[in-house]
């Protein structure tokens, strides 16, 4: 097995050195070439230790535009395998690309109240409709997909007595682990999403969850192991399978303001992510683990987070826009940098307040917010489903406001590519 995972997956600013994670059972060297039109623009060689994952960064500055990454594995002087992947290097003076690099999607949203404008339509979508959903997303230049969760569960930490054996959640796919099923028209929407993402050159983080919100107990850990193993067995062969997303979320201040729980429960997260990451690396050595807490008071609990983050590959925090006067992006990124964790952003694409359901922000508000995250290498939106929708879609996923935002963002994306001199070529 020879595998390479690049973080970020498909697109990066020229100011960022992407990370390469490489695993091989037999190769002892890797040659990376950056090509355009068959001509080599950049290249480097790195030594490998067979049977272990090698991690390094490499600058792609000087190769702005649509390029190809070619990976050649060697055992001594003998080339044992070659593979390649499209990549995009965006010109600019900041780490951010200025685009929505990825988005969450829902198979079925966890909150009927929040999803009042699209959940009933989601339940009508068949496998082919989910494929089209991803294809339409791809037209916007969105290359990353985060599946919010693959099981539905309404439980919260400390308010249930479930074990792995008594779990009563409902699966969004044909799970062999638990009998409960969410009533959906689609038979296997996870397979449909990955199949479409394969065709579109997109990358998918599988949402391993939901056991129970904010729950990182021993039973939750074992449940996540079982589900991750099944997901890998069913879907791990897809080219678009990029890694794992733990769906449970948590507050930036952990359990310190979440009574009546003991604040000391934060220690469970350190054990959970250490053990879960070790487990999934045995399944797929180079695939990252991602997690999305909110940002509230996160930096005030830096010491606690520094015991957790070394086992989280990508942190994608949310809720910055809810309290812009206490923006702590810089402080959070410094903590992540110290721990070797990539920090992206989970940009909420809905208007505030949202008591009556999620409604898309205006394009002007969306662009203003994107600029707040210039220091981060990737901007992921929450969420595509219900907040953007192709104007020709036969499903009313968010109504006219979602179609309008889709159309206006498409214009923005195309204008950006033209300004960079990329033309209309799509990866």
From TrEMBL:
It comes from the Bacteria. Pfam families: DUF4434. InterPro entries: DUF4434, GH. Residues 100-393 form the DUF4434 domain. This is DUF4434 domain-containing protein. It comes from Ruthenibacterium lactatiformans.
């Amino acid at each position: 097995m020879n595998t390479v995972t690049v973080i970020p997956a498909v697109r990066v600013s020229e100011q960022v050195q992407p990370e390469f994670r490489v695993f091989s059972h037999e190769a002892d060297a890797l040659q990376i070439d950056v090509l355009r039109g068959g001509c080599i623009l950049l290249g480097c060689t790195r030594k490998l230790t067979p049977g272990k994952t090698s991690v390094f960064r490499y600058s792609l500055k000087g190769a702005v535009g649509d390029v190809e990454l070619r990976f050649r594995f060697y055992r001594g002087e003998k080339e044992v395998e070659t593979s390649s992947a499209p990549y995009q290097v965006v010109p600019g003076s900041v780490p951010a690309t200025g685009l929505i690099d990825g988005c969450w999607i829902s198979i079925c949203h966890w909150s009927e109240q929040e999803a009042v404008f699209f959940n009933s339509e989601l339940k009508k979508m068949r496998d082919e409709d989910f494929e089209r959903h991803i294809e339409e997303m791809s037209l916007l230049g969105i290359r990353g997909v985060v599946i919010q969760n693959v099981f539905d569960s309404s439980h919260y930490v400390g308010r249930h007595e479930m074990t792995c054996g008594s779990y009563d959640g409902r699966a969004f796919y044909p799970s062999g682990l638990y009998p409960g099923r969410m009533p959906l028209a689609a038979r296997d929407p996870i397979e449909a999403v990955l199949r479409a993402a394969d065709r579109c050159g997109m990358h998918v983080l599988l949402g391993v969850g939901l056991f129970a919100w904010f729950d990182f107990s021993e039973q939750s850990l074992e449940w996540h192991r079982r589900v991750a193993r099944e997901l890998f067995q069913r879907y791990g062969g897809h080219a678009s399978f990029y890694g794992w997303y733990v769906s449970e979320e948590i507050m930036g201040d952990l359990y310190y303001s979440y009574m009546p729980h003991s604040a000391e429960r934060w220690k469970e997260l350190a054990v959970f992510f250490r053990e879960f990451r070790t487990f999934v690396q045995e399944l797929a050595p180079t695939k990252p683990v991602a997690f999305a807490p909110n940002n509230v008071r996160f930096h005030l609990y830096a010491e606690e987070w520094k015991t957790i983050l070394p086992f989280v590959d990508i942190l994608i925090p949310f809720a910055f826009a809810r309290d812009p006067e206490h923006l702590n992006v810089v402080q959070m990124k410094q903590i992540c940098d110290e721990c070797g964790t990539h920090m992206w952003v989970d940009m909420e694409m809905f208007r505030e307040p949202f008591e009556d359901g999620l409604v898309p922000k205006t394009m002007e508000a969306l662009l203003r917010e994107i600029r707040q995250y210039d220091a981060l290498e990737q901007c992921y939106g929450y969420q595509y489903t219900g907040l953007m929708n192709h104007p020709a879609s036969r499903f009313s996923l968010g109504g006219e406001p979602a179609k309008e935002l889709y159309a206006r963002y498409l214009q923005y994306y195309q204008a950006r590519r033209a300004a960079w001199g990329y033309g209309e070529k799509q990866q």
